[in-house]
Amino acid sequence: MNLRLNLILLAIVAVLAGWYFSQQPSEKTGLEQLIKKEGSPEFTGKKMETTIYDVQGKPQYFALAEDIKRFDATERTEFLKPLLNLFDKETAVKMWQVTADKAEINKENILTLTGNIKLQALDKASKLQKIETETLTVNLNTHDVYTDDEVKTLGLGFTTTGTGLKGNLKQQVATLTKNVKTYIEPTVIQQKAPNEQTDLSK
């Protein structure tokens, strides 16, 4: 009997000891949180803003976003709900304001935008005033732009819709590739100086 009772008591003690130690906080918990997991960003920030400069010290772009993630291994930066200002490479003047649902900039300085994209010219005299689409790629070195999606462009005196776009923000040129429809506003065209011309086929 004593042997059976001892075994039962040992079993109870073992169960209670196991329960007690399971309730204690792990000493490794804090350290595990500090260890970077594979594929996770090196830096994250909420509601942050940053300005990126080139090697000559001129601003390339300004970014304000709800969430920013930086991945050093791939030299990639992700933005959630970004607002970006793109600068003229030579004059360092703000030329375009960009908003989207998401954005990503890679090590080649290629900006990929996704969702509710709006590019607004900050120069009121720019021939090309606005671009709206759902996906867009912008080369921040050359300011070339590209998309295969449906696009709406607004300029001085015209609105154009179509599918697919190739253009250059610096040169204020946007060529739609398919299903192109252009709406001209003659009153705006007439108000322009006689020596100013807008290429409505673009």
Can you characterise this structure?
InterPro entries: LipoPS_assembly_LptC-rel, LPS_export_LptC, LptC. Its main location: membrane. This is Lipopolysaccharide export system protein LptC. With 202 residues, the chain is an alpha+beta fold. It has a domain at 40-143: Lipopolysaccharide (LPS) transport protein A like domain (lipopolysaccharide transport protein A fold, Sandwich), CATH 2.60.450. It is 17% helix and 51% strand. It has helices at residues 2-23, 29-34, 186-191, and strands spanning 43-53, 59-71, 76-80, 83-87, 94-99, 102-105, 110-121, 128-139, 144-155, 158-168, 173-184.
Sequence-ordered SSE layout with sheet pairings:
Blueprint: H1 2-23, H2 29-34, E1 43-53, E2 59-71, E3 76-80, E4 83-87, E5 94-99, E6 102-105, E7 110-121, E8 128-139, E9 144-155, E10 158-168, E11 173-184, H3 186-191
Antiparallel strand pairs: 1-2, 2-3, 2-4, 3-6, 4-5, 5-7, 6-7, 7-8, 8-9, 9-10, 10-11
